[in-house]
Amino acid sequence: MKLGVILSISKTHLLSRKKQTAVAALGVTFGIGAYVIMMSFMTGLNGLLDGLVLNRTPHVRLYNEIEPSEVQPIEKSAEYNQHKQMVQSVKPRQSQERIHNALAIMSFLKEEKNVRGVTPVVRAQGFYLAGSTRLNASLQGVDVMKEVELYNLDDYIVQGNPESLATNDNAIVLGKGAAELLSISVGDMVQISNVTGEVFPLKVVGFYQSGLADIDKVQSYVNLKTAQRLRGESTHFITDINVKLHNMEDAPEVAGDLEKLFDIKAVTVQEANAQFETGSFIRNLISYAVSITLLIVAGFGIYNILNMLIYEKMNDIAILKATGFSGRDVRMIFLSQAILIGLIGGALGLLLGYGVSLLISHIPFDTEALPTIKTYPINFDPAFYVIGIVFALISTFFAGYLPSRKAQKIDPVEIIRGQ
Amino acid sequence: MSKALEAKNINKYFRKPTEFHVLKDISFGIDDGEFVSIMGKSGCGKSTLLYILSTMDTDYEGELYINDELLTSKTPDELSMIRNEKIGFVFQFHYLLSEFSVLENVMLPAKKLGIKSPEEIEHDAMTKLDLLGIKDQALKLSSRISGGQKQRVAIARALINDPMIIMGDEPTGNLDSKNADNVFDIFKSLSQDQGLSLLVVTHDTDFAERTDRIITMGDGRIL
Fold it and tell me: How far apart are CA A80 and CA A82, in angstroms?
């Protein structure tokens, strides 16, 4: 009941000066609108850029690194143990590229509860043969349908479809750049030679485009079996195991455990793509900085308008106090005006933000680098809208706090006497 | 007879710019239903006294009772409640909320009190406006009516919560003689017919002479 009276007074105040109210509310509207637009667009872009690399990158990649032994033979010798040892020109240790017991490791990983999926990869080096020219080729032998499921391989197959690769052991999805160099179209045959010089004719069933030109010139996808055949190895031969987790943040911990457990090299997505994390962070930081600046400006606008209003309303405040409204009531009258401005301006800001975001999300955005993207990416996360309105209320509360406290402290006697 | 208002040994100092003893040992009372006027030269402290009696000014020494309830040293919020419930004000300048309608102005103190339903309050407000002969102006904006009408609206507002006492600071000071007479007649009938106590600060000798009692002040004392 009492709050009703206070709200009806502040409503009358706001409505009897529509222009000022509108200006104050518009300040908030633009602040919140800009926040929503910027966050939607920025995180949309972040998602896109992350998707470009992170979604295609396994969270943990297991492989055998070819590296020098940590302990050189001389260090094991008791005779020379006390001597200063110098070993020059250390070479990498001869070791197998294949992962020992890969199938067992994979079935172990599949049982882990934070693992979303495990895929085997056979990497094979070779050459595309075009007459007498040989172009470098890096072939990825993959479990095609699993790659599609976990790493959206189909998004990057710009011609043809992944199914025809999965079902054909003599097929290849050729990198778009390589296809252009070789003047090959879908349905043609391409000659691939492996490092030992054996030549394999493979049928081109599709083109692959990652968006990174250098990769597209070299990388192609084949069936797991095809890659094993190219390397002349059995079906147990696997060079990499890619692990996708439910939660990307768990990767370092999982990688550490696996390294110890299987004596193998484990690279996490964070190590492989550190720059992307930084980029996302900086972009978010910029969005927040700009939005907060806009809101502070809007807040000062509200502060000013309320301050002026209180000077104008000195008589009203005195009379309200004389007729029995307490200081707190008067304060609530002005504070509620600020919050009402925040609420209305904020709600309009959300609408504005949503409208403009919707508009942007329909603007065509064609780029070679991102074959799956047709329009600008927008992230319609409801969290931005919730944060936006909370932001609006908090900033207008602070803008109204000081002026309304001043109104609370006004001494009615001074005003009435002053006349 | 019980007292509507009683002041005991009230002293008041202005501290700025230099210390100045405005009110010196003021003691008096007003009976229920009594119509009292305070007269005195400008600067003798009569308005200052009125603001102390009205509970708006709390910076004084001495004791103040309304309806035998001691008000000195109550908190500002409690005093607001008492002003709302027991005291009605009429000022020289009409002091209506200009953005509100006449009816809303009259209703506000009752809404603040919050005892009656909005419908009852509206009914009461219309009754008071009718009593003062300005019922037809009820829905106008309060900035759109004449000075005499404004003063009557202010009186209606002062009456809305059926207070113990009405206080006026030169309520006729800004009105022509016809309107001033009008206001006096309203006050007189409130005191006679409804048993309301009235305390009015005035410069107007004609007005004062027609009240039940005149308190004359000079140099911060009651003469």
Answer: 6
CB contact under 8 A, A318 and B95: yes
Which amino acid is present at B105?
Answer: N
Q: State pLDDT tens for residues A176-194.
A: 899 988 888 888 899 999 8
How big is the A-B interface in CB pairs under 8 Å? Answer: 76
The residues of chain B scoring below 70 in pLDDT are 1, 94
What is the least distance, in Å, from the CA of B119 to any CA of chain A? 13
Distance, in angstroms, between B84 CA and closest chain A CA?
A: 4
The burial of A260, by beta-carbon neighbours within 10 Å (0-12 exposed, 13-18 middle, 19 or more buried), is given as exposed
Q: What is the pLDDT of residue A370?
A: 66
Supply the range of the domain harboring residue B58: 3-222
Contact between residue A395 and residue A338 where contact means Cβ atoms under 8 Å apart: no
| Model confidence pLDDT, tens digit, residues A76-101 | 877 877 788 888 888 887 777 788 88
Q: pTM of the prediction?
A: 0.71
Distance, CA of A373 to CA of A364 (rounded, Å): 9
List Cβ neighbours of A190 (8 Å cut-off, separation of 6 or more).
Answer: A128, A129, A172, A174, A182, A184, A201, A202, A203, A204
- pLDDT for A359 equals 93
Q: Residue B204: which CATH number?
A: 3.40.50.300
Contacts of B77 in chain A (CB under 8 A): 326-328
pLDDT at site A1: 47
Other residues' Cβ atoms within 10 Å of the Cβ of residue B218: 13
3-class DSSP string for B127-164: HHHHHCCCHHHCCCEHHHCCHHHHHHHHHHHHHCCCCC
A308-327 pLDDT per residue, tens:
888 888 888 888 888 888 88
d(CA A391, CA A220): 49
Backbone angles phi, psi at B211, to 5 degrees: -85, 170
Quote ipTM for the complex.
0.87
SS3 A171: strand
Q: Is A312 an 8 Å CB contact of chain B?
A: no
* Domains identified in chain B, total number: 1
